[in-house]
């Protein structure tokens, strides 16, 4: 993977989380239909009929609002006239069935193909970000370097900044240990290539763990005298963290399970990609 990034052309517009929300809802509905066709059963039978039509669209938009606005489950239930227990049950079931991961992988491949690139990358960029968390969060630790008491998000992204693997851990877990689950997830998806990171990923133990998984971990200096310096494509992961910082639920973590936090990170990137694909200029679509 080279350093050049040739992105597809999109219509110019300032960043607005509320623009093209329908594109996000349409992508989720399409993936739900694909899961039902595959036999994944995204909805279950019960005494109450499953949400359909407008009610289902409203429920999907409510989950999106939770991620963007950082609202509470009970508050969004009051606003959309759907019991918060129903919304949480839907979100939990979709997360357990892997809806958000499936959708993110599909949109990521679509975006790469639109950019005249291969569907799968040959190298990824890895990094972590410490976030404050509430005492009720699933795990907590103190990051002495950044003076943050909370959790740490570990990402492995391609050159367009879209994650292939996500994991979270308490903030006191060192990067060389916290990134191992990300490497395992990448290896499980068939990735074989280089993982580029900052100097925090140096060490023989991490290098050997990567070799066993078929991944070469390369530590590259990204700064000098306390200043950040872009090195090749390694800067793209910093941009990815800045993107998800616009989603308020991902700034202070309240989720009580790691799976739900990862799901909200995936929802943030699904929102970004669905908006991009919806804004592709006509020439790119016809090509």
Topology:
Blueprint: H1 21-37, H2 53-69, H3 73-80, H4 84-97, H5 99-114, E1 123-133, E2 141-143, E3 148-157, E4 163-170, H6 175-178, H7 180-188, E5 194-197, H8 204-212, E6 216-219, E7 223-224, E8 227-228, H9 236-244, E9 252-253, H10 258-278, H11 282-286
Parallel strand pairs: 1-5, 1-9, 5-6
Antiparallel strand pairs: 1-3, 2-3, 3-4, 7-8
Helix pairs in contact: 1-2, 1-5, 1-10, 2-3, 3-4, 5-10
Descriptive overview:
This protein is an alpha/beta fold and 287 residues long. Helix content is 45%, strand content 16%. The protein is built from 11 helices and 9 strands. A hairpin with a 2-residue loop joins strand 7 (223-224) and strand 8 (227-228). Helix 1 (21-37) crosses helix 5 (99-114), helix 3 (73-80) packs across helix 4 and helix 5 (99-114) runs parallel beside helix 10 (258-278).
């Amino acid at each position: 993977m080279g350093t050049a990034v040739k992105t597809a052309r999109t219509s110019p517009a300032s960043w607005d989380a509320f623009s093209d929300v329908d594109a996000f809802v349409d992508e989720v509905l399409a993936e739900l239909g694909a899961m039902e066709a595959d036999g994944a059963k995204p909805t279950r039978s019960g005494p109450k009929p499953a949400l359909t039509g407008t009610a289902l669209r409203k429920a999907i938009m409510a989950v999106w609002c939770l991620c963007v606005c950082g609202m509470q489950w009970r508050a969004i239930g009051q606003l959309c006239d759907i019991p918060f227990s129903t919304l949480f049950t839907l979100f939990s079931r979709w997360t357990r069935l892997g809806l958000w991961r499936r959708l993110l992988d599909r949109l990521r491949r679509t975006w790469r193909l639109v950019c005249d690139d291969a569907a799968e990358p040959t190298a990824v960029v890895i990094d972590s970000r410490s976030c404050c968390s509430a005492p009720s969060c699933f795990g907590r630790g103190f990051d002495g370097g950044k003076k943050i008491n909370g959790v740490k998000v570990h990402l492995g992204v391609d050159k367009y900044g879209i994650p292939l693997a996500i994991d979270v851990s308490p903030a006191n877990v060192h990067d060389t240990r916290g990134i191992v689950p990300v490497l395992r997830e990448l290896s499980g998806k068939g990735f074989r290539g280089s993982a580029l990171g900052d100097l925090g990923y140096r060490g023989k133990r991490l290098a050997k763990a990567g070799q066993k998984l078929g991944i070469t971990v390369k530590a590259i200096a990204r700064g000098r005298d306390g200043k950040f310096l872009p090195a090749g494509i390694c800067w793209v992961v910093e941009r990815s963290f800045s993107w998800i910082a616009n989603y308020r639920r991902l700034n202070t973590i309240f989720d009580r399970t790691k799976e739900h936090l990862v799901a909200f990170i995936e929802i943030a990137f699904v929102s970004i990609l669905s908006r991009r694909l919806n804004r592709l200029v006509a020439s790119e679509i016809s090509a």
